[in-house]
Design a protein that fits this description.
The complex is a heterodimer.
Chain A (H helix, E strand, L loop, with lengths): L1 H8 L10 H19 L3 E4 L4 H14 L7 E6 L5 H13 L4 E5 H6 L16 H12 L3 E3 L16 E4 L27 E4 L7 H11 L10 E8 L2 E4 L13 E6 L12 E2 L5 H10 L4 H5 L9 H7 L4
Parallel strand pairs in A: 1-2, 1-4, 2-3, 4-6
Antiparallel strand pairs in A: 5-6, 7-8, 7-9, 9-10
Helix pairs in contact in A: 2-3, 7-8
Chain B lengths: L11 E8 L5 H11 L5 H13 L15 H6 L6 E7 L2 E7 L7 H9 L3 E7 L6 H12 L4 E7 L8 H18 L4 E5 L23 H7 L12 E10 L15 E10 L1 E3 L3 E5 L3 E9 L5 E2 L1 E3 L3 E6 L10 E4 L5 E12 L10 E6 L2 E14 L6 E3 L9 E14 L6 H4 E5 L6 E7 L1
Parallel strand pairs in B: 1-3, 1-4, 4-5, 5-6
Antiparallel strand pairs in B: 2-3, 7-8, 7-15, 8-14, 9-13, 10-11, 10-15, 11-12, 11-14, 16-20, 16-22, 17-18, 17-21, 18-19, 18-20, 21-22
Classes of the chains: A alpha/beta, B alpha+beta.
Bound molecules: guanosine-5'-diphosphate.
Guanosine-5'-diphosphate binds next to helix 1 of chain B.
Chain lengths: 313, 431
């Protein structure tokens, strides 16, 4: 007994390299393994964006060297940059994963979603498609890459966030979540949204992408693109977002901080060609990720909260 | 945002703000974020806009952390909001926890992952009943360190005398609750005194500013220097069917145990006891989170263990140091905090989740209730309702392996789940 106590007293704290990224990674892996052990049919929401790429990377690590059994679910707005879809398909093949794509376009064609006008941003309409996909496949948990530093409704959400049979989040009555002991239980038809990187910041995500050499779609890095400047944001010129007659088209070096629906995701001016350069820019930036690049959340103080209550990611 | 080179960061500090309603929790966090330059321009302009909308001249720092519609309607904090900020010295995760009694479970949620609690005291009013409640709960849920921020010093003319009285009162209170690591700092969250810079109005105070204190405060307890505990989250059966192609592991045909090293250190060659069965085996290989075989792993690491012997081990099993094994039993006593609107029903069974175990459990008896404000204990209570804290005896359907929460929070903690509603109805610490 004494020998053991001696041994553990001798432990050299300083010699152990344990960074904040290690702590965040281990927390995420623990969460993903709980899902793997306790849930029947998990889906990992995979958009091809950097946060979902990080979550996928963590899931691959959590079960390594086992093949990942989570279904990848992409709720496709059909308003995509082709580079992002290429990336999605390449990664799916590389790790021999099962990808399910359900599109908002189909929901529109089936009359499940009605647009107010054509070419309207489709982010908020993903909710219907997502809820339909959940009930079609009977997913009991959907794993997302949302982070609490993104937005104030997210800042309040649990890591295992319960949704009722209508997919609704009740922010006034969340389950307590004590220590690292997670309650994953749901009745049939109900659903959990699990967010393993809840506690990561945008900078953590980039530092982790650098450390782990995680692949990303090319549009995260600086490239030349035609844009117009509208309301302080850069709006890319695409078939879905044509310039207005009096717009001045400029060709700028830009990169995307998030990738989503083309019609509401704006790039930022940047010359950053590598992850290192992005980290430097991220550390010095004056504006949040959503503030800079999401044209749809600026409409109201509570846009995200309202969408989440209805079943959004 | 400060530039953070991961190699230089001394780690991550998770803390909460606690204390009674209106003592200044939200203002303090807003001030910390603002003064440490962690607010981005769009966040600031959003706060400016809502301050104006509410007819205020200056920006109201407390709005930085205010979140949901429901909360804004009622003007109170219902649930914890997490914030992230960094200084060149450290990264911080802050839980801004609600002060109202009816949201105790959300305060406990925030506190349960914190390394430190900042308990706010209004210098004009001193310690209130809700301060006592938060202090008790913070200690019960395992927050290792507490620092009191004696706030609104501007309202008492920065009086050293008043500060000394409150300092004495809080230190005593914290000791009586069980804290040994106690700090007290005078501040004005609203005006910024002693948050990131000292200012000259607190010239008589010679200690660190709040931020200086946070940058140096010890993170979680040193779980490495405790006896080894490893809890099996998942058994992985590695064979040709399920090994990833190109993983380099194609020839393996074996069973591995995935899980978290809760405490201590585990080395290849170590003999371990596997509870509840009491089997012994040697560690053959250790796979770390990066998919590399290593000689040793430490507390907090998510790993995979391979053993020499082929044993029947499933999720929930605990590996321990042979010379310092934990307890194994179906019967144990705990201090329980009841969260649910429906009171505890001793005629029912609940589900317990402890490490990776999930089992049916019955509450054999409620032995006493603790009045967390006076610390008085009442014997033979008739029941437990929402927000009650009590000492109870439980009986589990299966053998559980655990330590007392005091010696090892990772194995001595559990939650109770209602089997019908699936709600998390209580949390407990094993005594
Ligand atoms: N005079 C003064 N007022 C303060 C100070 N800190 C907070 N307040 C005010 O106290 C009230 C409650 O603060 P708030 O941060 O919302 O408290 P919470 O309920 O604990 O989050 C607000 O009107 C603040 O402006 C301080 O240091 N000095």
């Amino acid at each position: 007994m004494n020998a053991v106590l001696e041994k553990i007293r001798d432990f050299d704290q300083a010699a152990r390299q344990w960074t904040h990224l290690d702590a965040l990674e281990s927390e995420a892996i623990h969460i993903l393994r709980e899902i793997g052990a306790e849930c029947n049919n998990p889906a990992l929401l995979f958009s091809g964006g950097k946060d979902s790429a990080v979550v996928l990377h963590l899931a691959l690590k959590a079960f390594f060297p086992e093949r990942l059994r989570f279904t990848l679910l992409h709720i496709d707005t059909e308003h995509n940059y082709p580079e992002v879809l290429d990336f999605r398909d390449r990664i799916t093949r590389k790790y021999d994963l099962n990808l399910v794509v359900r599109s908002v376009g189909d929901s529109i064609r089936q009359g499940r979603v009605r647009l107010r006008h054509e070419n309207e941003p489709r982010n908020k309409y993903q909710t219907t498609t997502l809820l339909d996909a959940i009930s079609e496949h009977e997913f009991d948990v959907c794993i997302g890459g949302a982070r609490r530093d993104e937005e104030k409704a997210r800042a309040k959400e649990r890591i295992f966030s319960f949704r009722d049979e209508f997919g609704q989040w009740d922010p006034k009555n969340q389950r307590p979540e004590i220590w690292n002991i997670y309650n994953t239980r749901v009745a049939p038809g109900e659903n959990i949204r699990a967010f393993p990187i809840s506690n990561w910041t945008e900078l953590d995500v980039w530092e982790y992408i650098q450390r782990e050499a995680i692949e990303l779609p090319e549009i995260y890095f600086s490239h030349e693109r035609d844009v117009v400047i509208r309301g302080g944001a850069l709006v890319p010129v695409t078939p879905l977002t044509p310039p207005h007659p009096d717009d001045e088209i400029k060709r700028l070096s830009v990169r995307f901080r998030t990738v989503g629906d083309i019609t509401c995701t704006a790039p930022v001016e940047s010359k950053a060609l590598s992850v290192d350069e992005i980290i430097l820019e991220t550390a010095q930036t004056q504006i949040t990720e959503r503030g800079a690049t999401r044209l749809d959340d600026q409409t109201s103080e509570a846009a995200m909260e309202l969408r989440k209550k209805e079943g959004y990611f | 945002m400060a530039i953070n080179n991961p190699q230089q960061v001394s780690g991550l500090l998770r803390f909460i703000t606690a204390g009674s309603v209106d003592d200044g929790k939200s203002t303090l966090i807003g001030r910390l974020l603002f003064d440490s330059k962690n607010l981005q321009v769009d966040q600031l302009s959003a706060v400016e806009a809502s301050s104006k909308k509410r007819g205020m001249q200056q920006i109201d720092l407390s709005l930085i952390t205010d979140g949901l519609l429901a909360e804004r309607e009622q003007g109170i904090t219902i649930d914890v909001a997490y914030r992230y900020f960094a200084t060149p010295a450290r990264k911080f995760i802050v839980g801004d926890s609600p002060g109202h009694v009816q949201y105790t479970r959300n305060m406990v949620t925030a506190a349960s992952s914190a390394d430190l609690a900042i308990v706010l005291i209004d210098a004009e009013n001193g310690v209130k009943s809700q301060t006592r409640r938060h202090l008790y709960l913070a200690h019960w849920v395992g927050v290792p360190h507490v620092v009191f921020a004696v706030n609104k010093m501007d309202k008492v003319g920065f009086s050293q005398e008043i500060y000394r009285m409150i300092e004495e009162e809080c230190s005593q209170l914290a000791r009586s609750v069980g804290f040994s690591n106690i700090h007290v700092i005078p501040v004005s969250a609203l005006e910024g005194d002693n948050i990131t810079v000292k200012g000259d109005r607190l010239h008589w105070y010679s200690g660190p500013t709040l931020l200086e204190y946070l940058e140096k405060a010890p993170a979680a307890q040193d779980t490495e220097v405790q006896p080894m505990r490893f809890s099996v989250q998942r058994v992985t059966r590695l064979n040709r069917e399920n090994i990833r192609t190109n993983s380099g592991f194609e020839d393996i045909d074996t069973r591995g145990y995935q899980g978290l090293v809760i405490s201590g250190q585990l080395n290849v060659g170590d003999e371990v006891v596997i509870q509840p069965g009491g089997y012994r085996s040697q560690v053959k290989k250790l796979l770390n989170a990066s998919g590399k075989f290593v000689e040793a792993v430490f507390a907090q690491e998510s790993i995979t263990v391979f053993l020499e012997q082929d044993l029947d081990i499933s999720r929930g099993a605990m590996f321990s140091d042979v010379s310092l094994v934990g307890q194994v039993s179906k019967d144990f006593d705990a201090e329980l905090c009841w969260f649910d609107e429906d009171p505890l029903d001793t005629n029912r069974t609940y589900l317990i989740k402890q490490t990776s175990n999930v089992a049916k459990v019955r509450l054999q008896s409620i032995n006493q209730l603790v009045d967390v404000e006076t610390l008085q204990k009442s014997l033979h209570p008739s029941g437990m309702k929402m927000n009650d804290i009590g000492h109870v005896s439980l009986k589990s359907q299966i053998q559980l392996s655990f330590d007392s929460f005091e010696t090892n929070p990772g194995t001595g903690a559990f939650i109770l789940i209602d089997e019908v509603s699936n709600r998390t109805v209580a949390a407990g610490t094993i005594r």
